[in-house]
Fold these 2 entries.
Entry 1:
Amino acid sequence: HPITPFIKYYWNWRATHIPLFKILQSTVPEADIYHAVSTGYAGLLGAVAKAQTGRPFILTEHGIYAKEREMEINQSEQYVGYEKRMWKNIFYSLARIAYDSADLIIALFRRNRALQIQNGAPSERCRVIPNGIPVQSFLELERRPHETFNVGFIGRMVPIKDVKNFIMSARIVLNAVPKARFYLIGPQDERNDYFEELQILVENLELGDRVIFTGKVDVKQYFPILDVVCLPSIKEAQPLTVIEAMVAGVPVVATRVGDVEDILQQDGIVVPPKQPDKMAAGVIKFAKDAAFRKRCTQHGRERASQIYDLNKMIQSYDEIYMSYGDQEALKWQA
């Protein structure tokens, strides 16, 4: 490289390749089936396990791991162009190794399955198994009477969730729905600097006591008083918050990320990321159109409870393990 010294290239090469050599030299414990929950180094270890033992290797990706790493690398200020290319090539190469070796490749939703195939996964070995939640525990939640119109964000207070978008939309909603109150439900200690920025934004927008930061709590305590749940995220895979809200009978306004459109379909409002005016318009629609809110709530609850049942997800994996594993060895687990 005409500008960057060779020593920098060397340390980047070492950082990317030493973990690979260690994994390739490792001896894996004996098992009937090996199951990795991402590509990358975990997927490589799964491929090594299959090569050493001849046992089946199953791969499940909640997100597209190589794509997620690419996004992080592109945003990093630590690396220059060729260094970024090196790191990205490593992760996409590891994904192809895992896809080539896996007997079955599972995605959470159709869009991610298409991305896996685009990145080299054989389509005949790709399958979709959606996330699941304990449906019954959310169906049993009973609404509690309240005088305010309560809008909730549920998640970590971190930039990728774009909580600032939610707070800015809150200012717009409050102008149109004076009785609105906003609950930010979730842990605050992952990024203290970001949380401080959220508090300053609340103060600058003069939202005062209309915004409540709950900290980490049991979300089931809050669903009975929420009238709308918002998901303002920049990136998601298959957000459980949206599914939980639907089954709990709370309508959702969410950004167009991950599997949100397929989850909500016609039973919620999908808006572009980073546009608080659009998110606010969705909340206001639910606040002022009771018939629309009721239709979304009833139909969405019924559909989500059928599709995203944790028991169905567990049954799907049980069937996979039994079909790929040693039947005699697995009988005790069945």
Entry 2:
Amino acid sequence: MLRSALSLLLLRVFAMAADRPARLRAVFSDLDGTLVHFPSWFEEHGAKIVSRDAEAKRCVVESATGERRECRLLPSSTMGDGVVSERTVELVRQLRAEGVLFAVVTAARKSTLLARLPLLPACDVAVGETGSRILLEDGAVDVEWAARFEAVCGPLEREMDVAHRPEPLWRLFRRLQSIRGLKCDARSYYGCFRADTGDDPSVDAALRACVERELPAGVSWAMNLGKYDFYPALSGKGNAVSYLQAKHGVAAAESACLFDDDNDLPMAERCGAHLLPGLTSASVAHAAEAHPDWYVAPSAGQGVFAVEECLERLLARVRAEKAGEGAQPVGA
């Protein structure tokens, strides 16, 4: 009788534990549209830059309600200067001080990522080229990760003209260059490349038809900011997040994802908490509607103000958990 009662009690304890959200131990964050914001986007939602010093790489951004933030100006090779607020930098610092792993996961090319890193919030890991390039805290490339798909894209540190790269990814690049009106971009890309249709429906149709017929085994693609990113199927943002979770001993349920666009959805699937400072694409907006537990910032679309709301929510959760209040849900 006593043994049965004890067994029943243990089952109830395990069931209660399973129902509780896991404690937060890692945050995986996109860059463009998430940590870094652009005037052409946030001006549509009432925020604006009110002062700018390009030489000092500083600016002040004002919200639709008149609130202001000191910001850093970041270089971007394709979209102009981006902004990241000092408040964002401080919130990430506080999360890391609480013992939370913070990883930046972006599609940015090597040169853009390296130029931005000194101005971004300090992080534990930086991931570029749609998941292909993982930079450790000391700036070194994670060679164990890169070796998994080297046969598809070649060595990440190799300097070779794209016209002579023999791997499947680059053979596809050269094939797509033959599509009239399609702009293929491999500058400072080593583990992925980008294709831009210029929003031309006929070019888009030609690209999709070619991809359907000729996409090489081991190559995948995703939409990012209205453009196509092609990369090794074993890399990608989702696989990179899974690799980092395993490497650092972090479970999916212990992870939060900050994101806004289509190519972020695979990494969001690897995380237990989801926070969106904006809804850049229709598919992400639909996904958020289908998941009421996802947190969409009240200032969604207002750039730095929206991501600060997301980071403040995460920091409050971590501190509540440390204070002994148990694991906290992130969603509204």
